[in-house]
Amino acid sequence: MSYLVADLGGTRIKAGVFQEKKIIASSILNTDNKESFSKVIENLDGVFEELITSVNCQKSEINGLGLALPGIVDIDRNHVLAINDKYNESIHFNFDRWARDKWNAVLATDNDARAALAGIWQYGVGKGYDNIITMTLGTGVGGAALINGKFLYGKHYQAGCLGGHSTVNFDSFKCNCGNMGCVEALGSTWNLNNIVQSHPDIAQSSLNNYDNVDFAVLFDEYRMGDTVSKEVTENVLKAWSSGAVNLIHAYDPELLVLSGGVMKSADIIVPFMQNWINKHAWTPWGKVQIKISQAIDDIALLGLGYLVDTKIKNKRKN
User: Fold this and answer.
1) What are 174-219's pLDDT values in tens digits?
2) CATH class of domain segment(s) 2-111
3) Are 2-111 and 125-292 in the same CATH fold?
4) Contacts for 41-47 with beta carbons within 8 Å, 24 or more apart?
5) What is the pTM of this model?
6) Transmembrane ranges (predicted)?
7) Domain 125-292 top-level CATH class
């Protein structure tokens, strides 16, 4: 069985060929928010065709397609219900028609965080666990939940994937979701520069030398001993950790998996969050363990392969 899978990120698309529980070929496609979504899909089709040629696979041999999108996805109708400033036209795109007319293949779609969780569960550090929550830290704060071996969706397909929008400080920054004091508003790249510039002592900080502060800069200056960097970093860590405790209380996991580009500073992040969780999470049975997701570039693609495989098997049963 051969599947084509793609994770549609905000600035790039990672595409691959999934065979026998492996990504045997992959490619990255840079995207432009000014392009129509139809053009994005057209470009993706071109990448898919190049990939199958590179592995000596025929178009007729493609049995399934998997797409992960950064929004709320109706997985039963393959329909994007809501998305925030990324691929806005996808809400009106007919994914089933595209999969049928262009590829004559079964299509599985899902939220990008759930796709990553599927990969973590089946092929990554979550293998052997059936109760997992994830937090993806970076541009935003994403996440997903697996309970007793089943992905959490809810009536409107948004359960478990909005953990970054739980409130950790209601008297703080407004989030782009409309809520006040979300984990994401207090600990993500899109608002980090605003957080830094709002600090009363920014003029005396080395951070004031940067036009734009991202997490790489923040953690570097933290290591150098800058006082403002230390305070901002600790506040970000508290936001992430408090959000993690909220998820633990909501979903009762045995494992929390962290991912994202900021995990290059895992030596700072993981001990802080683990200590906070150990101290503040009410888990009489024991302590929730933190692990870092490996093979981050391919984990969502692997997860999509699993989701496509599951959908095809379920269709055969029915």
Assistant:
1) 998 889 999 999 999 999 999 999 999 999 999 999 999 999 999 9
2) alpha beta
3) yes
4) 41/93, 41/98, 44/6, 44/13, 44/15, 45/102, 47/6, 47/13, 47/15
5) 0.91
6) none
7) alpha beta
Chain-centroid distance of CA 54 in Å reads: 28
Three-state SS string over the chain comes to CEEEEEEECCCEEEEEEEECCEEEEEEEEECCCCCCHHHHHHHHHHHHHHHHHHCCCCHHHEEEEEEEECEEEECCCCEEEEECCCCHHHHHCCHHHHHHHHHCCEEEEEEHHHHHHHHHHHHCCCCCCCCEEEEEECCCEEEEEEECCEECCCCCCCCCCCHHHCECCCCCCECCCCCECEHHHHCCHHHHHHHHHCCCCHHHCHHHHCCCCCHHHHHHHHHCCCHHHHHHHHHHHHHHHHHHHHHHHHHCCCEEEEECHHHHHHHHHHHHHHHHHHHHCCCCCCCCEEEECCCHHHHHHHHHHHHHHHHHHHHHHC
First to last CA, the chain: 19
**Dihedral-angle region of residue 142 (phi above 0 means left; psi in -120 to 50 means alpha; beta otherwise):** beta
